[in-house]
Amino acid sequence: PTPLVIQRVPLASLVPDPANVRQHSPANLDAIVGSLRRFGQQKPIVVDEQGVVRAGNGTLLAARQLGWTE
Fold first, then answer.
1. Whole-number Å distance between alpha carbons of 3 and 6
2. Displacement of CA 25 from its chain's centroid (Å)
3. Residue 53 parent element (H or E)
4. pLDDT given at position 54
5. Given 24, 42, 46, 55, which is the most exposed site by the fewest CB atoms within 10 A?
6. Rounded to the nearest 5 degrees, what angle is found at the Cα of 22, between the Cα atoms of 19 and 26?
7. What are the pLDDT digits (tens) for 22-60?
8. The whole model's pTM is what?
C-alpha cells in the first residue's frame, strides 16, 4: 500500500470527487465554513495520487469560500 503522507498543498491543485454522492446543502456548507472559521481545520482532506478528494469534499469547498489557499 501507498504510505500516508501529510502535507500542505495548494487548494487549487485539488479536484472535488466527481463520484461523491454526498452533496452539501447551502446550510450544511455554511456550517462547515463556520466551523473552520471558529476552530480551524481539525482533520485532513484525503486525496489520491491525482489530487482527487476522497474525503473532505465539503471541507474543500468551505475552505475555498473562506479564501484559504492551502
1. 10
2. 15
3. strand 53-55
4. 94
5. 42
6. 125
7. 888 999 999 999 999 999 999 999 999 899 999 999 999
8. 0.88
